[in-house]
Amino acid sequence: MQIANESEMIALGRSLAKQLNPPAVFELIGDVGTGKTTFTRGLAEGLGVSEPVTSPSFTISKRYDFQTPGGTNGELVHYDFYRLDDPGLMRDELAEALSQPNSVIVVEWGGDVADLLPETKLQLNLSLNPDDSRTISFNDNAKFMENL
Ligand code: ADP
Ligand code: MG
Q: Given a cut of 80, is residue 147 above it in pLDDT?
């Protein structure tokens, strides 16, 4: 899939959010600046998160509340392990978040915690093209893309 600009990336996240039934796990793979956090911003908007999403780089994780269409409380948890040499305690935090039935988990730079992530997830591989568009390939074990 070709994503021409930032607003198309946000639109992709938004429309995927509409397909979701928590729990849901996204693994975002791609270099710095390919649009992983931008995608997450769209996902949050589509879920109904009211706060703006910013990169969790320095805090490693950020949590955002939203209401599911059924009226229960959901939680978006956004991880970025880029600056973390040793996941240590963050592994426990991630495992706990993954066990929550109403969670939507997004992981950037998840190589060191890949063993914790479930088989049922949507992996996005993002890459940057010379014209500033992005190419995304999907590995969709969770079948989130089926109705897109
Ligand atoms: P990452 O989290 O992968 O490091 P970010 O989402 O933080 O990347 O940053 C991507 C940057 O690239 C943003 O400043 C965004 O505005 C810009 N951008 C330009 N073109 C695109 C595009 N086609 N898709 C996504 N982001 C884009
Ligand atoms: Mg990022």
A: no
Ligand 1 center–CA 43 separation, angstroms:
14
Cβ 103 vs Cβ 75: under 8 Å: yes
Q: Whose CA is nearest to atom 20 of ligand 1?
A: 5
At 98, give phi and psi (nearest 5°): -65, -25
Among 38, 60, 125, 132, the mutation site with the greatest number of ligand 1 atoms within 8 A of its Cβ is 38
Q: How confident is the model at residue 84 (pLDDT cuts 50, 70, 90)?
A: confident
What are the tokens at 129?
């093209």
